[in-house]
Design a protein that fits this description.
The chain has 757 residues and is an alpha/beta fold. It contains 26 helices and 21 strands. The protein is elongated. The chain starts with 9 loop residues before the first helix and ends with a helix. The model is unreliable at 189-200 (pLDDT under 50).
Length: 757
């Protein structure tokens, strides 16, 4: 390195840090009021608002108050959960702040980017996201400035050109002096690796179909009631009188608690994963993990340890080992040491060889395939044997006794003549075999990817018991038998995106691990893109998950989190469909059979509010991990839910018929129906949340306490006649017994179906 290019001392940096502050810009505070207002302007809110206007026009002031409270609660609750999710993701994003290679006190070190100060000398390489504005002082770069200019094409930078915070190095290497940090930088933004604008995941898209099913059902039953009212001799005024009930049927279908349940479950799992060494940068990654059935795994750093050791060195020069290796050390990248650099440094250190540095050093690039230095009147190249053999064409004849299949090779050229070959091996991680077995047990097909040759890849696959064929990428085609595939060798970074798309086209939900800038498109494309612990900043920004620990064990934790979210959302879906269908069918058939709607309007409003209270808490419920990829089949879920609803409706109609023929008044029947519906809703949650009988399992504390509160409020309202007709303790007991009997009978039929779901 030239003496002119020197960084700050630590003392100077500390002084500037006190003057300038940290290299970050406080993120805008969450505006609760603005978020609250936004929740009053969407489809669900519009339905509630239309119902509110209708109730007011009809003079139903009590019901209007309830609808208003429901509308305000939905907006407040949605804003509260958004605030909670934002807080969780913000806490996680701070852990994703990138590190930067900076020279302090004459030595290169990696520091948290928030401690950068003006005047710092930083090293830049492909994949780095600039953490501050800087002036290029050595080398040439190509930067992706789309984050600040919108320009998609890379922008070339030369010495004395400015580079801005938030831009990404896509090509070249160089040194730069920091010119502005934090709020003083051009972008004026903290580097944040959280992608808040991601498209919704598979689970969220499927959940929205529930609204369609419910509205379709309500529309059909409303039409039935309207037609039946005219056939029964009703007039237009009778239809007007029924409008509040019809409006409430639609209100009951609105999934007020869905955003809250969804946000609560995802943020709950994101927090849990962060404590287990996995940072979530996109919540859809958790959702899609439940459906994951194929994962592409980088060999190095994931299956093998993120450390490579030199296992053999062969000297082809006329110089002794000491001299050759000392020259080789000058071509090692000491600013941004990679895996091979570290392995050779360790090897040289063990040989008691001092590491040399060159003022004329060119780092490794994928385009050249080697690093280069001029030192002690010699030109030294260190890198790919394949690339270097193009320079010294006699090299191929000299290496006939080298077993390149024993590991990764790194060749050395001195003055464009082959001087030696290092053979390096990655050590298989101790947890890889068990973790891969666990992935296969869970129905996930693991396929190893590596840039190594086929022979090396096969040896690693055998060590970790990845059964099947290991092929070269050159033999990969669309007719390949995926079930027999264990690994793919000779893979270039640009091949990975093609493979992700290929497997997605074959119908797989694809996960992928990656670490380099060239892995970023594939990580973004995969449903579950996972940046490994040592990944480049741009790879971390592209992936939906970032591992803090090496190895595969953390991926199993991601699967578990996905299954927990899936199970909770399955419970929510079945519960919402079944409860709404039961309510609307019970009221519709009650009107058809008994000529009146067997539930008071006030009770209907209260029932709707109380149901949303308990379903919101499903996002924190206890779950049971399943061991196969989930498969959302809305038609099947709807069939199960409507079957449940039919069972409850049938028992409810029989009960109403009995009450009508045994002298019970309409008011008493209405209250008893309200109690029956509340109890049935609680039992439906208990039944659908487990694949065991509901009395054999118990919900989380938050779900259980909310259910208990709902039941107690129901008892108080019914016994004291608040907002409904008062009933006796005996009638209340009869309703409880009927609901419990119905729950047991229905669960005995339901559970065999549930186990095969």
């Amino acid at each position: 390195m030239s003496e002119k290019l020197s960084g700050l001392s630590q003392a100077e940096a500390d002084k500037l840090l006190k003057q300038k502050g940290l290299n970050e810009v406080p993120e805008p505070k969450f505006n609760f009021f603005k978020e609250f207002l936004s929740k009053l302007w969407n489809l669900s809110a519009w339905i509630l608002e239309a119902a509110l206007v209708l109730e007011c026009l009809l003079g139903k002031w009590v019901q209007s108050l309830f609808v208003l409270l429901m509308l305000l609660f939905a907006a407040w609750n949605g804003a509260s959960k958004k605030k909670q999710s934002r807080r969780v993701l913000n806490n996680i994003s701070h852990k994703l702040t990138p590190t930067v290679s900076v020279e302090r006190d004459g030595a290169w070190q990696n520091i948290d980017s928030k401690y950068l100060v003006p005047g710092d000398l930083i090293s830049l390489q492909p994949g780095d996201v600039l953490a501050a504005d800087a002036e290029l002082v050595q080398g040439q770069l190509a930067l992706d400035e789309s984050s600040i200019t919108g320009e998609a094409n890379a922008v070339k930078k030369r010495i004395k050109d400015d580079a801005y915070a938030g831009t990404t190095v896509v090509e070249g290497n160089g040194l730069a002096k920091v010119t502005a940090t934090g709020a003083n930088s051009r972008s004026g933004k903290t580097i944040n690796l959280i992608n808040n604008s991601a498209a919704p995941g598979h689970l969220q898209q499927l959940l929205t179909k529930i609204i369609y099913y419910l509205c379709l059902l309500d529309g059909i039953l409303t039409l039935v009631i309207i037609i039946a009212s005219f056939f029964k001799g009703g007039d237009f005024q009778n239809l007007i009188n029924m409008l509040p009930f019809l409006a409430m049927m639609f209100i009951a279908s609105i999934p007020v608690a869905m955003p809250s349940t969804f946000a609560l479950s995802n943020s709950f799992e994101a927090t849990r994963l962060s404590k287990e060494g996995v940072l979530t940068s996109d919540l859809t990654g958790i959702q899609d993990a439940a459906n994951l059935n194929l994962i592409l795994l980088d060999k190095t750093g994931t299956i093998t340890e993120n450390k490579t050791a030199v296992v053999s060195w062969t000297n082809f020069s006329q110089l002794d080992d000491q001299s050759v290796l000392q020259l080789a050390s000058a071509a090692i990248d000491q600013r941004n040491t990679k895996i091979i650099d570290s392995a050779i440094i360790d090897y040289l250190t063990k040989q008691n060889i001092k590491i040399q540095s060159s003022s004329d050093f060119t780092p490794f690039t994928s385009a050249t395939g080697y690093s280069m230095a001029n030192y002690a009147n010699h030109n030294i190249k260190l890198g790919s044997f394949k690339q270097l053999a193009k320079i010294d064409q006699a090299a191929n004849d000299q290496v006939k006794n080298i077993d390149f299949g024993a590991g990764r090779s790194c060749a050395l050229l001195i003055d464009d003549k082959l001087a030696g070959v290092f053979i390096l091996q990655d050590q298989v991680r101790s947890d890889s075999q068990a973790a891969l077995a666990e992935l296969k047990k869970r129905g996930v097909k693991p396929i190893m990817l590596t840039g190594d040759n086929q022979k090396t890849a096969l040896a690693v696959a055998k060590q970790v018991k990845l059964d099947g064929r290991v092929i070269s990428i050159h033999d990969f085609d669309e007719n390949i038998n995926i079930n027999e595939l264990a690994g793919i060798a000779d893979v270039l970074p640009e091949d990975k995106l093609k493979m992700v798309k290929f497997f997605q086209e074959k119908g797989f939900i694809v996960g992928m691990t990656g670490d380099g800038v060239n892995d970023s498109p594939a990580l973004k494309q995969a449903e579950v893109g996972i940046a490994v612990a040592n990944a480049a900043d741009v790879a971390k920004r592209s992936g939906k998950m970032v591992l803090l620990n090496d190895g595969l064990t953390s991926i199993v934790k991601i699967l578990d989190a996905g299954h927990r979210v899936y199970q909770r959302m399955t419970t929510w879906s079945l519960t919402k469909l079944a409860r709404t269908a039961e309510l609307t069918m019970l009221l519709t058939f009650g009107y058809l059979f008994f000529n009146y709607i067997p539930m008071a309007l006030n009770a209907m409003v209260i029932y709707t509010i109380m149901n949303n209270m308990v379903t919101m808490m499903i996002g924190t419920d206890r779950t049971h991990i399943t061991y196969q990829p989930e498969n959302w089949n809305m038609a099947k879920l709807a069939k199960i839910a409507f079957s449940l609803a039919f069972g409850w409706t049938l028992i409810g109609i029989l009960g109403i018929s009995y009450l009508n023929t045994h002298g019970f008044g309409h008011g008493t029947i209405s209250t008893m129906v309200y109690v029956f519906l509340v109890l049935s809703a609680m039992f439906i949650i208990l039944i659908t949340r487990t694949k065991r009988y509901f009395w054999q399992d118990y919900p989380s504390k938050s779900v259980g306490l909310t259910q208990l509160a709902d039941v107690l409020i129901t008892i108080i309202l019914a016994i004291f006649g608040i907002a409904m007709t008062k009933i006796s303790w005996l009638n209340l007991l009869i309703t409880f017994v009927a609901a419990l009997f119905a729950a047991i009978v229905i669960d005995l039929v339901y559970q065999p179906i549930m186990k095969n779901r």
